[in-house]
Design a protein that fits this description.
two-stranded antiparallel sheet; alpha+beta; 359 residues; Alpha-Beta Plaits; single chain; Serine Threonine Protein Phosphatase 5, Tetratricopeptide repeat
């Protein structure tokens, strides 16, 4: 009788172990698919995992992120709400809900969820920053500015927060303050075109008092002297910036750290007779400029070196035009990355991989 009981217990333990291994394998597979941007496959993997472990909050949360990446915001919210039922204090959950409600255009609900995220993690400066974006959409500029200041208190060198602060100050007519903040951002990261372009545009539309160091020429000179390719442009002003969802990643048996970032809004291709727009695959980006003449200079320099380079013109919903210097055309992201490493060493230039025809 004892032998039978021992055998049964051993069999039960083996079944439990097998289920645990399957759960881990499926979770890691889903995370890998997310990283590879195979979001529909990730949804299917996490859905299968839910049939095995229907009470794992991280699985619902990650499936929600995958739905959000496919613009399926109602499904994403449903998954995040299920996550809340299981584990209401899960870090990053309310930030994800904030993102989903933002994209649905319900900024009030987005703010409510960011309030809850901040209550759980009061030092989460990205949550303050993203709430500032939502409050700017609601034209609550005083509250938005307060959130930006809080974010900068935690992270003084947060470039995007500085740009957002400059946008809010300019939007509310505080032009001198906006200039100072844009200059601060420009000094912090001259490779980013946004602060320099916004400063030049502000000087063009609202001329400052005569000041040798405040002219548009000085800004352009600073940018021209920095022989560094600009990365993908920073987000549009406060009313157009958009938060990005988080994803949990599994390393061994540990839960991952949470990540948040800001992503750009949708764009529209706006090619001219001499500038090309590509709509599929992947490309290498060797600069992003608000000034077409700067883009053409970079274009000519790379063309003289024999690279298949072109300028792609893209327009934000606000009407802001960006001129992106793109090289090559690749069917896969990995192929683009392989060439990127070779070009960076040869050109001594920062280059990034971007989806063709998009930021």
């Amino acid at each position: 009788m004892k032998k039978i009981l021992v055998s049964v217990l051993i069999a039960a333990c083996l079944v439990t172990y097998a289920h645990a291994q399957t759960e881990k394998a499926l979770f890691e597979s889903g995370v890998a698919q997310m990283k590879a941007e195979k979001f529909q496959e990730a949804i299917e993997t996490f859905t299968r995992l839910i049939t095995i472990v229907p009470d794992n909050p991280d699985v619902y949360k990650n499936r929600g992120v995958a739905h959000m990446k496919l613009n399926q915001y109602d499904k994403a919210i449903a998954d995040f709400e299920k996550t809340r039922e299981i584990k209401p204090d899960l870090k990053g959950l309310y930030s994800n809900l904030g993102v989903a409600w933002y994209y649905k255009g319900d900024y009030v609900q987005a703010v409510k969820n960011y309030n809850m995220e901040i209550a759980l993690t009061p030092d989460n400066y990205y949550a303050y920053f993203n709430r500032a974006i939502c409050r700017a959409e609601l034209k609550e500029y005083d509250l938005s500015l307060k959130d930006v200041e809080t974010a900068l208190g935690f992270a003084p060198q947060f470039y995007l927060a500085l740009c957002l602060k400059g946008d809010i100050l300019a939007k509310t007519g505080h032009y001198d303050g906006a200039r100072q903040v844009y200059k601060q951002a420009l000094d912090l990261d001259p490779a980013h075109p946004y602060a320099g372009d916004q400063l030049a545009e502000l000087n063009r539309t609202h001329s400052p008092a005569p000041e040798p160091e405040a002219s548009d020429r000085v800004v352009k000179k600073v940018l021209a002297e920095k022989k560094i390719a600009a990365p993908a442009p920073a987000p549009e002003p406060a009313q157009n910036a958009k938060p990005d969802p988080e994803m949990n990643e599994l390393k061994g048996t540990e839960k991952p750290s949470e990540k948040e970032s800001l992503t750009s809004p949708g764009i529209q291709s706006d090619p001219s007779s001499t500038l090309v727009s590509v709509q599929s695959g992947w490309e290498l980006q060797a600069g992003a400029f608000g000034n077409p003449s700067n883009a053409e200079k970079r274009h000519k320099a790379l063309l003289d070196k024999g690279y298949p380079v072109r300028v792609v013109v893209m327009k934000r919903p606000s009407g802001k035009i960006w001129y992106l210097v793109r090289i090559g055309s690749y069917g896969t992201k990995s192929a683009a990355k392989a060439d990127l490493e070779k070009m960076e060493k040869k050109l001594n230039m920062d280059i990034i991989v971007r989806p063709a025809g998009r930021f």
